[in-house]
Amino acid sequence: MKINFTCNRQEFDNDYRDILRAFYPFIVLDDDGEMLSLELQEIEENVFDCLIKCDNSKDLRRFTLERVFLADKGSEYYEIKCNAQIKRHSKVVLYDFLVKLTGQTLPYGSLTGIRPTKLYHETLQKGLDAEKYFLDTLKVSHDKVNLIKNICDNQKDFYYVKDNEVDVFVNIPICVSRCSYCSFISAELKRVKQFVTPYCDILADELKRTKEIIDKMGLKVSSVYIGGGTPTSLDDANFERIIKESKFDCDEYTVEAGRPDTITKSKLDIMSKYGVTRISVNPQTFNQRTLDLIGRSHTVEEIYDVYKLARKYDFDINMDLIAMLPQESEEDFRHSVDCAIALKPDNITAHTLALKKGSTLKVGGYDNSSFDLANSMVNYAQNALEKAGYLPYYMYKQKYMSGNLENVGYCKSGKACIYNIHIMEEVSSIIANGAGGISKRIFDGDRLERLANPKGLDVYLQRRDKMLEDKEKFFS
């Protein structure tokens, strides 16, 4: 089935596309993975029409949504609040139409945003019945509402952040090889070797400037998170320099080591020396055929060896798994979940594959659209992890994700990652360092502004002075 959709509000273009895209494969997309068209027509001032035409029917189906006013026309918030309400209600109407058209419902109903739990928290803060709103208005399924509610309950100890608290993020956008599902800006080490030491030089300077800003403003650091990329792909000398410069007076210090083929005893020693409290040893899968297929240049045996070595240190350990990797059956994914649980790491994050533009899988035309398979995999992970004593504590969704599902982080009691909660719920200012890092600053409790560092390694190196000047202004 192909759909031609016309509407009169261009500022909602992406939101409508997300709803339509969520019904794939029940609706056919064009070669670029987009709807055939999405055009806009103004009908009258306070009403807009959506016209949907199916290629297998001569009928022109129409639905009309009246504008809902939430504030007086004289209010400065009139247009913002009105637009938000229009978008929310029109997405529900479009969702209902597509349910009738396709005979399919989606686990998250009309909800397409990245942060379902953030919306749930905000609904509660308005004094509304969030559970009823998600079920009745947004059409989210009972199972997903329960999952969202449980996550929000498990976040309570970390959700409220003091005005003078910040988190620090450090980005190492370098990997030893590129996984076929990856769309990050990370560069392969062999291609950027000449940039590694100069990059670490400037990153160390940026971290020193970050410490000056924190001291000057009298801020307290809640957590530090070094991600990428793969931070442990750096040589020992540069790795130690960055780990040392990234040490702050805080209780949580995470290094996303990730790739087992980059984690060595010397790097574990360095992290232990400078007070790292949490690391990742990420299998993604425990099936060797899949590891080879997706470009992970390590073996299943290495996952076990590195995990056993890391357990000799006083680190909390996270393991990532991905549902819907190419050529994996439900049994393959169940095997990976069971293997991870048997190792008893402190955290297990269950991802659902998102086919991002720029990834090798996307370019190669890989189809991750089997809703039933994705749903079965995700449900198995949730049930098995909760049965093993893991609690869901953070969540986020992405575009182009199998089954319009989600990524969920699970933890043993008392082992939640503070940084993951803060960044997903956007309740804490974040001072980001390194190429592609995005700083966030929260004003007056609810206004959030962003400052992005240059993305590419070469541009980051060229814009050092301007970047440091912008950051100081942003946080002063």
Tell me what the structure shows.
Helix 1 packs parallel to helix 2. Strand 3 (47-54) and strand 4 (60-66) form a beta hairpin. The chain is built from 17 helices and 17 strands. Helix content is 41%, strand content 20%. The protein folds into two domains: 3-104, no CATH class; 158-462, pyruvate-formate lyase- activating enzyme (Alpha-Beta Horseshoe), CATH 3.80.30.20. The chain has helices at 13-22, 78-102, 116-125, 130-137, 142-154, 156-159, 189-217, 236-245, 265-273, 288-294, 300-310, 330-343, 360-363, 371-387, 418-425, 457-462, 464-475, and strands spanning 3-6, 37-39, 47-54, 60-66, 165-172, 174-175, 187-188, 220-228, 252-258, 278-281, 316-323, 347-352, 391-396, 407-411, 429-433, 438-443, 447-452. The strands form four sheets. It has a nine-stranded mixed β-sheet, with helices on both faces. A four-stranded mixed β-sheet has the order 2-1-3-4, covered by helices on one side. The chain is globular and about 60 Å long. It has 476 residues and is α/β, with parallel strands linked by helices. Mean pLDDT is 85; it is low at 36-81.
Proportion of helical residues:
40-55%
Any idea what the shape is? globular
Order of neighbouring strands in the sheet with most strands: 13-14-12-11-10-9-8-5-15
- Please give the radius of gyration in angstroms: 23 Å
CATH architecture of the largest domain: Alpha-Beta Horseshoe
Q: Which oligomerization state do the chains in this entry correspond to? A: single chain
SS-based structural class? alpha/beta
Strand content bin: 15-25%
The end-to-end span amounts to 54 Å
Average of per-residue pLDDT values: 85
By DSSP (H or I, 4+ residues per run), the number of helices equals 17
* CATH domain class name of the largest domain: Alpha Beta
> Superfamily at the CATH H level of the largest domain?
tm_1862 like domain
Number of domains: 2
